[in-house]
Structure formats: structure tokens, C-alpha cells
Design a protein that fits this description.
Residues 1-25 form the signal peptide. With 326 residues, this protein is an alpha/beta fold. The chain is 49% helix and 17% strand. The strands form 2 sheets. It has a 5-stranded mixed β-sheet, sandwiched between helices. Strands 7-6-8-5-9 form a 5-stranded mixed β-sheet, with helices on both faces. The termini are far apart.
Length: 326
């Protein structure tokens, strides 16, 4: 036994302090969006914190472009983005990697036209004010829809507004149409009609998806955290897909999604059923050629529209399935 109990206490304190610092070093910030998905329940329940054994700072963002900026700055380690801002970020060669397909977008994003705006068919969009967050999946889908309808985008007044600003502008009557997601989508649908959804555009050859991305430096230091984060998300998806009707019949699930998304409870079923939430087995395949090709195609479209100045020869470095565990 050492004759220096004071020294023992100091050493013990230093050891505890070091352990605390190690634990704190793994704490991280997540940028989430107000999308409607089953994993919102896991977020509300603290399942991510439990699985990663880390303190998570959850920050709400209104669009993917803002998320990319935060991730690029280092303020955020993991972020939720759409395929369009992901393509823009990868093209800029930012240090990010897609580690999970969050959703293949269907009816959860749509082009809504105001009742009484005089827009009864696509051609009526010419000269009208259409709001959309720029470099978002909604923006990509809007441009893809206009291209499908042979409408020159320069003949439409396309306004760059964040979702909260879209809601305000819609309620004031300042805009004629919007391509957006919830909760702004739900507000617009109350006094408008859907002209086309992202699911319908996907069938026309312009698919969009949402994804979870991670800073490469964080993933290299803490791969176990990224795997745990992915597993919690996929477990939530599996729980929903096992019996969607039973899941939707649980008012606690609905309440948690409403709280974190801002969507109306009555809209949750349609929004969930309008998207596809890939399970682990699907993710392993998707996080390969299908996603890299989709990102490349999106980048090509963005280049056509002058949103990016080039297309990379290979987007594989920005996509990985190594964090998926069955």
C-alpha cells in the first residue's frame, strides 16, 4: 500500500478527469430537418444518445443548403440533407460522406398551387410567383417538372424562400405556388391543390431522396458512433414497416413526430406512406452505385441549371455503406 494517500487521490481524480474528457470528445451535433419519418420517435425518446453513449446537440434546420454550410464549417458533425444539396456539396468536394439513405421521397414534397391563382394546368405557371428553397430537393424537383412540361424556368418567377418564409408568404397571398415539404406543405395544401409530387416525378425519371451525411474526420475518429446512429434509425424504420397501421394507431408515436416536424397529426399517415424508408439490407445495396449514380445525375442537372460549375467524374468517395449493420 502506498504511503501517500493524497497522491492516490490526485491520481484517481486525474484518471476520472481524463475519462470524462474522452467521453466528452465523442459528443457531437446533429442537424435535423422537419421531415416526417419514423426515426423522429427515436429522436424524441433519446435512443440516439443511449446507443452512442454521447451527448447530442440536436439543431433544427429549415433546408439542406443551411445544413451543408454548418457541416462544412465543422459546427455540425452529422446532418440530414436532400439529394440536391448533397450533390452540390460533393461537387464542391466538401469533406462529407453519405452513410444512410433516410428516405426515397414521394408525396412528402409537392408542387402546390393556390386556389384562385389561375393555375389550372402546368402552362399556367408562366408569369406566376413560385417559392422554393434554392438548391433543395424541392428546387431540383421544380426545375425537373418545368423541364418535363417544356416550360422555360426564366418565364416563371421562382423565388428563393426558406420554408417558414414560404408559409408566411402563402398566408399573406404573396405567392401563387410553392414546391416544399411539411409543415409548409400542409399549410399550402389547406388552400391549394397539388400539381405534381416528387413521387410522380421519380416515375418520370427525376428521383429525389434524403440522406444522413457525416463529416469524414468525425467518422474516421468515431466509426462506432456513426454505426450506432445508423442502427437506431434503421431499427425505427423496421419497427414502422413491420406494421404501419399499428404504428400509426399509437398516439404517442404521432405526438412525437408532430412535435419534431411541425406537421399536423392528421397529415402524418399520408406523409409517411408517401415515402419509402429503406431497411438495412436495402441500404447496403443502395449505398453504392445507385446512390453515386443518382448524385452524379443530380449534379449534371444542377450544372445544366447553372447551380454548380462542374460534375465530378466519380462520386463514390462521398457515399459509403460501411456503417450499416444488420
Amino acid at each position: 500500500m502506498t504511503p501517500f494517500p493524497f497522491v492516490r487521490r490526485v491520481l484517481a481524480a486525474l484518471t476520472l478527469s481524463s475519462a470524462t474528457l474522452v467521453a466528452q470528445a465523442a459528443d457531437f451535433t446533429v442537424a435535423y430537418q422537419t421531415t416526417v419519418d419514423p426515426a423522429k420517435v427515436a429522436q424524441a425518446d433519446g435512443a440516439y444518445e443511449k446507443a452512442t453513449q454521447a451527448k447530442i446537440d440536436w439543431r433544427k434546420f429549415d433546408g439542406g443548403a443551411e445544413v451543408i454550410t454548418a457541416v462544412a464549417s465543422g459546427d455540425v458533425q452529422i446532418g440530414y440533407v436532400g439529394s440536391s444539396p448533397l450533390a452540390a456539396a460533393a461537387t464542391r468536394q466538401l469533406p462529407v460522406q453519405t452513410f444512410l439513405i433516410a428516405a426515397q421521397i414521394g408525396a412528402a414534397e409537392a408542387l402546390v398551387v393556390r386556389n384562385g391563382s389561375g393555375i389550372d394546368k402546368p402552362a399556367d405557371l408562366i408569369g406566376k410567383k413560385v417559392a422554393v428553397p434554392f438548391v433543395s430537393t424541392g428546387h431540383y424537383s421544380l426545375l425537373a417538372a418545368l423541364k418535363h412540361w417544356n416550360i422555360d424556368p426564366s418565364k416563371v418567377q421562382i423565388l428563393n424562400l426558406a420554408p417558414p418564409a414560404i408559409t408566411a408568404a402563402w398566408q399573406r397571398g404573396d405567392i401563387d405556388a410553392t414546391y416544399v415539404w411539411d409543415p409548409a406543405l400542409g399549410v399550402a395544401k389547406e388552400t391549394g391543390k397539388v400539381l405534381i409530387t416528387s413521387g410522380e416525378l421519380s416515375e418520370l425519371g427525376a428521383p429525389t431522396f434524403d440522406a444522413w451525411i457525416v463529416r469524414k474526420d468525425f467518422a474516421e475518429k468515431h466509426p462506432e458512433i456513426v454505426r450506432a446512429f445508423a442502427k437506431v434509425t434503421l431499427d425505427a424504420y423496421a419497427n414502422y414497416r413491420k406494421d404501419p397501421q399499428a404504428w400509426l394507431a399509437n398516439p404517442d408515436n404521432i405526438a412525437k413526430v408532430v412535435k419534431l416536424s411541425g406537421a399536423k397529426a392528421e397529415d402524418i399517415p399520408l406523409l409517411l406512406q408517401g415515402n419509402v424508408f429503406p431497411l438495412a439490407a436495402d441500404q447496403v445495396t443502395a449505398l453504392g452505385a445507385p446512390t453515386t449514380q443518382a448524385v452524379s445525375a443530380t449534379a449534371g442537372f444542377l450544372k445544366e441549371q447553372g447551380k454548380v460549375d462542374k460534375v465530378l467524374p466519380d462520386y463514390a468517395p462521398y457515399v459509403s455503406n460501411q456503417y450499416i449493420t444488420n
